[in-house]
Specification:
Blueprint: E1 3-7, H1 12-23, E2 27-32, H2 35-45, E3 49-53, H3 59-67, E4 75-78, E5 88-89, E6 92-93, H4 95-122, E7 127-131, H5 147-167, E8 173-178, H6 195-208, E9 217-219
Parallel strand pairs: 1-2, 1-4, 2-3, 4-7, 7-8, 8-9
Antiparallel strand pairs: 5-6
Helix pairs in contact: 1-6, 3-4, 4-5
The protein binds NADP nicotinamide-adenine-dinucleotide phosphate.
NADP nicotinamide-adenine-dinucleotide phosphate (NAP) binds near residues 33 and 182.
């Protein structure tokens, strides 16, 4: 049976990926930030789901959560993320908000990946995904709004390339994923695709991921995106 760890399952794409993983018969470990969200998720998601609690900026909490898990993890999906502060243009930046965005979107996935690497190593087919965004692509350079968010996702793409390089000798594949423009709290009601569509595409990629695709930046539908 596949065991998957997804960060940020309280809502959005993370919650949908947790639901669909359970429907596939996978065992799901999902992170939330608060005890009441863990209690709610346990009731809503039901059998096969185990919550763990941490903020992705909190190194000690991540390590504490990792220490409670003894079993192999086959798939780690770093999904948690924020859009960043209200003021985030290059001419008017909320610098504290920018730092927090980097801490959550760029450094958070690396903290989580390092802490749970021991569990991925126990799997015979360990796979690591980071939910990034096409807004972090340096190749797609025609929009310059939301610079904190864009920079954080460009940064995490470089982190992903490093992870893919460093983990390839151990047989662990790693990719960066653009989930599409998705109708969640972050994507808003006018976004083009439903969370169900995005989550299904991401899980299909996760299920089939092998070293032949490691180090790539993929759209939720499996097509490749320019860095
Ligand atoms: N929606 C889109 O159109 C879109 C497009 C491109 C990329 N993405 C990326 O897809 C991922 C999921 O986005 P979404 O649309 O599902 O967003 P969402 O509905 O806003 O959900 C964000 C999730 O991240 C969690 N989170 C936020 N800050 C956290 C922190 N400091 N520590 C741990 N967890 C934290 C939230 O937990 P709480 O509930 O506790 O706040 C929530 O579970 C993000 O990485 C986002 O950048 C989304």
């Amino acid at each position: 049976m596949t065991t998957i760890l997804i960060t940020g399952v309280h809502r959005g794409i993370g919650r949908e990926m947790a639901k669909q993983s359970l429907a596939k018969g996978w065992r799901v470990i999902g992170s939330v930030r608060y005890q009441e969200h863990a209690d709610e998720a346990l009731v809503s998601l039901g059998t096969g789901f185990s919550p763990i609690i941490f903020d992705v900026t909190d190194q000690e909490a991540i390590e504490r959560a990792a220490a409670t898990i003894d079993e192999p993890i086959d798939i780690l999906i770093n999904n948690s993320g924020v859009i960043g502060p209200d003021r985030q243009s290059c001419l008017d930046m909320d610098f504290h908000g920018f730092e927090l965005t980097l801490a959550i979107n760029t450094i958070g996935p690396l903290r989580v990946s390092q802490a749970f690497l021991q569990h991925l190593r126990k799997s015979e087919n360990g796979r690591l995904l980071i939910i990034s965004s096409i807004m972090g692509s340096l190749a797609h350079n025609t929009s310059f709004d939301r610079i904190a968010y864009r920079a954080s996702k460009a940064g995490v793409n470089k982190v992903l390339q490093g992870l893919a390089n460093d983990l390839e000798p151990e047989g662990i594949a790693a990719v960066s994923i653009h989930p599409g423009w998705v109708r969640t709290d972050m994507g808003g009601p006018n976004a083009s695709i439903a969370p169900e569509t995005s989550a299904a595409g991401i899980l299909e990629i996760a299920d089939r991921l092998s070293l032949s695709e490691t180090g790539r930046f993929l759209n939720y539908d499996g097509s490749e995106i320019d860095w």
